Amino acid sequence: MKGYFLTDRGKIRHHNEDSGGVFHNCSQQLMAVVADGMGGHRAGDVASQMAINLIRDQWEKQPVLKTPEDVETWMQETIQALNRSIYNEAMKHDAYMGMGTTLVVAICTQDFTTVGHIGDSRCYLLNDDGFKQMTEDHSLVNELVRTGQITKDEARHHPRKNVVLKALGTEADISADIDTFNWKEGDKLLLCSDGLTDKMTDPELGEFLRSDQTIEKTAQNMIDLANERGGEDNISLVIIAHDSSREEGEVSC
Length: 253
Prior knowledge:
The chain has seven helices and eleven strands. It is α+β, with helices and mostly antiparallel strands. The strands form two sheets. Strands 2, 3, 4, 5, 6 and 9 form a six-stranded antiparallel beta sheet that branches. The protein has a five-stranded antiparallel beta sheet with strand order 1-11-10-7-8. Strand 7 and strand 8 form a beta hairpin. Helix 1 runs antiparallel to helix 2. The longest helix has 25 residues.
């Protein structure tokens, strides 16, 4: 299994509030994360980096998780702990008041993937059935689409398209949406911030993942195109390719 994280500041922003990475626990199970921070006075990058550092530290000392139930429990409990840490940090510093971050995280075994998310950073799956978004945005425009008030095309150009209804660290208690699905060799996952999805349609994203280029080259090409189309936001993504390498197993932490 191979994963690659890439982030770019974009063409307009003065600093990058996105964070992310690909990490392995001591049993070599893979976890990928993307976080898109929000808040003034650089508080967004504080929130997103806190989320990544904390979840990475917990994951790297975690023994093997064998069942979807084990993974889902670990993910929900860990995300709740991240939320409390970020919220408490914001309460201690005036400059951090109201800071938060989106979060999308995938834990991948050879047989299944568990995805958790808060906010509008997304996870997509490419498999034999096609290319599909596996997460549901916690955003104003998605709620308007869901209730039939606007179309998906109108949502792409809505003036409030970046308003999220749920974010990590903005309130004392929060619950992530978590789902587990099967995947197999040859499948690919894409995790990304809205700096990418605001600049490309789902069919375009799917075509990139279908490319026979390396995942590193594909990731760079996607970021290059988002920048060519304006690059108004930070752009971050992880591509994970399911192959037979790096089988997880029992390892003592």
